[in-house]
Each structure stands twice: as C-alpha cells, then as structure tokens.
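User: Just a sanity check before I run the rest of the batch. Below are the structure tokens for the first item. I only need the designed sequence back.
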C-alpha cells in the first residue's frame, strides 16, 4: 500500500543536524529533477531575493523564508515526519507511533513536495518554502515539472498495492494515474453532515484524514482493492460511501457528524 500525503505549508525548522544530501533520499530516480529544482530555487533566493519573494508568494514580513531557501544546501536536516507540521500531521502524530505501526509508516507513506517530488517519513530534509502552485523561473510551473518526473517514483513506491491518494488539489496534478493504475487508486473526501446537509470543511478534512491514516497504520491491514479498503474503513468505525471509479481512481466519501 502507498498512502500519498500533501505537505504542510508550516514546517518545523531543525535546529541541528547534517546538511541535505540528495543522494541519500529515498526514491533515487528523483535525484536529478530534485537537484534541478533545488539549485534553481537556491540561486533565485540568493541572487534575486525581492523577485524570489514575489515568485514564492511571500509578503514583506516573510523575508526570512527567502533567506532560509537561499541557505538550503547547508541547512540542518531532520526526519520529514518531524519537519512537516500542520493540522493533518498533528492528528497523524507520526513520531508517537510505536513498533509495527511505525515501520508501516516508513514503507506506506510518501509526502508530495514541491521541492523534492516525494519524500518518505524517514528522509532527512531541511525546512523550506516552495508551494506546489509556484512557477519557478527556469523550471516553469512546479506542478508541471513534477508531473513529468514523478510517475516512476510513485509506481516504484506503490508496487502492486493500492494507492490511497490524500493529496490536496494543489498537489493532485503532480501525479495522475494512467488507465492501468487508476483501478487501484482511491481518493478520500471528508464531508461534515449537520441536519442532513453536508459540506467540506478544510481544517477538519485535514484532521480527519490524519486520524484515518493513523488508524490504518495501527490496524496494519493492507487492502488490495478500493472496495476492500472501503470495508476496512467501515470496520475501523468510519461511515464511508463509495463513488464511481474514474480517471483519478475510486472516490470514497467519509461522512462525519462530529468534528
């Protein structure tokens, strides 16, 4: 099983640690495209900080984010599961997992990243700023760049198993399944139901997805089909409705009454 997660805009900057080593990251098929994005981002932030702020969508009070990106090659690193923060990651709480659940996180999870394409929880990375909707001079739209390079890494990570796609809309275009793969992809939408009315609430959508992933890791069952995955979520206590299969996979709606 492969569970694709979005990154978080908020990141916890490591205070100490070895500098970034691209060749040590998992999924080495991405080393060359990672290097191109990293070198381009660092050069832009180092040589043209004002333009970099505009490109990255940063305000006048966020100059430290540009300086941080300019210094990425020598910045301290930590495990990705300690760098990414935010609502989903707080609910998931990867560092507190124990035993088999922690081992499953290492092999099941991959985080989509504007800078690195995909990273595993144990990959050592610095805190950085590069959203998936940025157009980077010399590279072009970051999403388009990774769309051209990410497929071999996703397929390698997934093997013959199910792909559970929890990415946000910004990162969904980084990789889209081909016709042969779509049949083993599921996407999740979290709906809050009140008095018969349903709506998506971003904050609680992220939190619920984090709790679902944690439950899956602790349960340990690797469903092989979208239908069996829906049954697994129901067994774990979630209300799940199956949608039709499509080009992006089979959509499952998780309906919650309490947030």
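Assistant: Here's the designed sequence for the first item:
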């Amino acid at each position: 099983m492969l569970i694709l997660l979005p990154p978080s805009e908020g990141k916890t900057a490591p205070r100490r640690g070895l500098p970034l080593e691209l060749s040590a990251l998992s999924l080495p098929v991405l080393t060359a495209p990672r290097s191109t994005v990293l070198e381009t981002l660092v050069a832009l932030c180092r040589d043209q900080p004002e333009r970099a702020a505009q490109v990255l969508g940063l305000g006048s009070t966020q100059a430290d984010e540009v300086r941080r990106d300019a210094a990425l090659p020598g910045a301290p690193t930590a495990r990705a599961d300690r760098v990414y923060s935010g609502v989903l990651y707080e609910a998931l709480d990867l560092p507190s997992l124990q035993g088999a659940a922690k081992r499953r996180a290492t092999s099941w999870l991959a985080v989509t990243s504007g800078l690195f394409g995909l990273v595993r929880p144990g990959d050592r990375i610095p805190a950085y700023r590069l959203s998936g909707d940025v157009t980077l001079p010399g590279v072009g739209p970051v999403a388009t760049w990774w769309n051209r390079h990410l497929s071999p890494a996703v397929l390698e990570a997934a093997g013959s198993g199910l792909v559970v796609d929890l990415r946000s809309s910004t990162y969904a275009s980084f990789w889209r399944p081909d016709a042969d793969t779509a049949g083993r992809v599921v996407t999740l939408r979290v709906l809050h139901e009140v008095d018969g009315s349903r709506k998506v609430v971003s904050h609680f959508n992220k939190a619920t997805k984090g709790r679902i992933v944690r439950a899956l890791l602790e349960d340990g069952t690797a469903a092989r089909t979208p239908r069996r995955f829906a049954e697994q979520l129901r067994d774990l206590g979630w209300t799940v409705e199956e949608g039709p299969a499509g080009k992006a996979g089979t959509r499952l709606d998780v309906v919650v009454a309490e947030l």
